[in-house]
Specification:
The protein is built from 17 helices and seven strands. By secondary structure, the chain is α/β, with parallel strands linked by helices. The chain has two domains: 157 residues, no CATH class; 156 residues, Serine Threonine Protein Phosphatase 5, Tetratricopeptide repeat (Alpha Horseshoe), CATH 1.25.40.10. Helix 4 crosses helix 6, helix 8 crosses helix 9 and helix 13 runs antiparallel to helix 14. It starts with a helix and ends with a helix.
Length: 422
């Protein structure tokens, strides 16, 4: 077993024992930790699935599923962190897992607050940190679960003596604020995709991923405002409503500033591009430039990802075989490209708009080269190419992604749409 993972597993099991008397915890919890300790992946996976169902947090649980009351409390968080970390350590190439973790951990000042959005960005960083529980070298939490009172209770339990963590009243206030805004947008016909807002009598109900993330975003703002002496860093899963003007690229992730920034300086963009040129050169070879054509990009994708032909490949063969690393690094580069695109769409300066579009395109090219079968990499790049009125390039990229994932219905539909638009 990876020694970092073994240390993390012991710490999480100790947390569960501390948070609840052992006779109140379902026996399968301890069976799960036993399976992990002896590296029995199949048993651990089966037990993890049972624990997920028993936690009552997932809609795909069987109809006759019994919910375990203790798993609705703060003990679920360390169990869930254990399950998440176990999956990451099992699925990733070990070299790239540790490289990913060190790139983020070594870049963040001690004592900062870090929001881990993706599963790797949350669980790998938690496991590789000196002490997740003690916030060493920094405090790691996820923006995705802040609307869950049990998770907030867990954060207050481990970090509450050192950080301001939103209270139940803060959470209720965020929910009320969101509901009021969503109700108005519903009346105006401006609900976002994935938002489900319904009015039954005098009651307003909200559901859907977009709604939950909007509430989470408000609670992130509370944490930033209430901890003014801390630095903040964010690894994006879903874009948070208010954060774009406050973000700057920071290696693989973002720095989240307490005040909005009027613009991104040329130095910030240059530093980001130098960093990602070095990273992508190590992963896939140093062949991409601003002059690289879309056809060259697609030819590379066909050779490496479709044909599995590594002859002359100058990148990491470990990376070329690790789909988890491919998806993760591509996702993070997409997120930074999304910031550049947002900047391009929210400036009145024509030259700044062009600079942001160019920066976005380079980021999207790199993201696509890292994982050309990623729906996010494809659709974000297509959106930019559509804005730039380059349908031929968009069509070429879509056809390449479809070759890599021929059963993907979204890719099929996109190819049809782009073909009809020709």
């Amino acid at each position: 077993m990876d020694p970092d993972f073994a240390r993390f597993a012991a710490a999480k099991q100790a947390q569960v024992r501390e948070f609840a008397a052992s006779n109140t915890v379902p026996s399968m919890v301890w069976s799960y930790f036993d399976a992990v300790r002896v590296d029995d992946w199949q048993t651990a996976t089966n037990l993890a699935s049972q624990l997920h169902n028993a936690s009552g947090r997932y809609e795909d649980a069987p109809a006759n599923n019994r919910i375990s009351a203790p798993l609705l409390t703060v003990i679920w968080a360390p169990i869930n962190e254990m399950i998440g970390a176990s999956g990451e350590f099992h699925n990733w190439d070990s070299q790239w897992l540790h490289r990913f973790g060190r790139e983020i951990i070594d870049s963040i000042p001690r004592g900062s607050i870090y929001f881990g959005g993706t599963d790797p960005g949350r669980f790998i960083i938690s496991a590789l940190s000196e002490s997740h529980r003690e916030g060493k070298p920094f405090f790691t939490l996820t923006q995705n679960q802040l609307a869950d009172e049990a998770y907030l209770g867990y954060l207050r339990k481990i970090y509450g003596a050192k950080l301001y963590i939103p209270t139940l009243e803060d959470a209720q206030g965020a929910f009320a604020k969101y509901v009021a805004d969503a109700q108005q947008r519903r009346q105006d016909g401006k609900l976002r995709p994935g938002e489900d807002v319904r009015v039954v009598g005098d009651q307003v109900s909200v559901s859907g991923q977009a709604a939950v993330m909007a509430i989470n975003a408000l609670l992130v703002k509370t944490i930033v405002d209430k901890n003014p002496t801390r630095d903040f860093f964010l690894e994006e899963s879903f874009p948070l409503d208010w954060t774009d003007p406050y973000l700057t690229p920071h290696g693989l992730i973002f720095q989240l500033h307490p005040k909005s920034l009027k613009e991104l300086s040329a130095d910030v963009i240059e530093k980001d591009q130098v960093y990602w040129k070095r990273m992508t050169a190590e992963m896939i070879g140093d062949w991409m430039t601003k002059q690289t054509s879309t056809k060259e990009l697609c030819d590379f994708a066909d050779k490496i990802y479709l044909d599995k032909n590594l002859e002359g490949f100058k990148g990491s063969r470990g990376f070329a075989k690790d789909q988890e690393a491919q998806k993760c690094f591509s996702k993070l580069r997409c997120s930074i490209g999304g910031l550049y695109l947002w900047r391009s769409e929210n400036t009145r300066d024509a030259e700044d708009q062009k600079n942001m579009q160019r920066a976005a395109e380079m980021a999207y090219r790199q993201a696509y080269a890292l994982c050309p079968y990623s729906p996010e990499a494809l659709f974000r790049y297509i959106r930019l190419l559509t804005d730039l009125k380059r349908p031929d390039d968009a069509f070429l990229l879509a056809k390449t992604s479809l070759r890599l994932d021929p059963k993907n219905e979204a890719f099929k539909q996109l190819v049809r749409q782009l073909n009809e638009a020709h």
